[in-house]
Amino acid sequence: MFKKDNFIPPLSSFELRRQASIERNLAIQACMRAAVRASAKWLRMLLQRSMRLARDLTAERRRRSAIRELHRLDDRTPARRLWAAAIVCFATAGAAAAETRTGPPRVCVAADLKLMTLIEAHGEARDVAPEVLAQAFFTVLEARKACNQGQVEAGMKFYESIPLLPVISETD
């Protein structure tokens, strides 16, 4: 009745075993490739997190060291020493940001420079209580931290909350 034009003879048991072995080897190779990819991805993620942790710990250590240095200062310390400590803090805070992106936004840098100059001027003029200057300095540090973390609005609110006025010189 119907004649089969494309007749395929049945495979022998040897041929069936050989094809099954090939299929099994291909499946094993696919599993191994997937396992190697997953392991490499896991290892890369572990390495990135370890590097980030080491960088954060280093920045934290530098920050704490700068804070310890600031705590050693007393009311008789010249403003230049306070200014030097502030520069150290700014450098350590900015170092972590520089590793992750291009650095703090210009608006933050401008506000920071303005306020640090005011803090230094008031420190040299000795017309503001040291506690007020210290509070202003630590508020600047919080603002830097916010700016370095990309929270520019929060950082600018910190900068704007510092109530320092320009120094009035005795010759005016």
Task: Write up this protein.
This protein has 172 residues and is an all-alpha fold. It has a domain of 107 residues. The protein has five helices and no strands. Helix 2 runs parallel beside helix 4, helix 3 packs antiparallel against helix 4 and helix 4 runs antiparallel to helix 5.
Offer a few descriptive terms.
172 residues
Short description:
This protein has 172 residues and is mainly α.
Q: Low-confidence segments, ≥5 residues, pLDDT <50?
A: none
Q: Looking at the chains present, what oligomeric state does this protein adopt?
A: single chain
- H/E order of the elements? HHHHH
Largest sheet: none
Give the proportion of residues in helices. over 70%
**Roughly how many Å apart are the termini?**
120 Å
Q: What Rg, in angstroms, do the CA atoms define?
A: 33 Å
Mean of all residue-level pLDDT scores: 80
Beta-strand level of the residues, as a percent range? under 5%
Using DSSP, what is the number of strands? 0
Coarse morphology: rod-shaped
Number of helical regions: 5
Itemize the secondary structure elements and their pairings:
Elements: H1 13-72, H2 79-100, H3 106-125, H4 130-148, H5 152-160
Helix pairs in contact: 1-2, 2-3, 2-4, 3-4, 3-5, 4-5
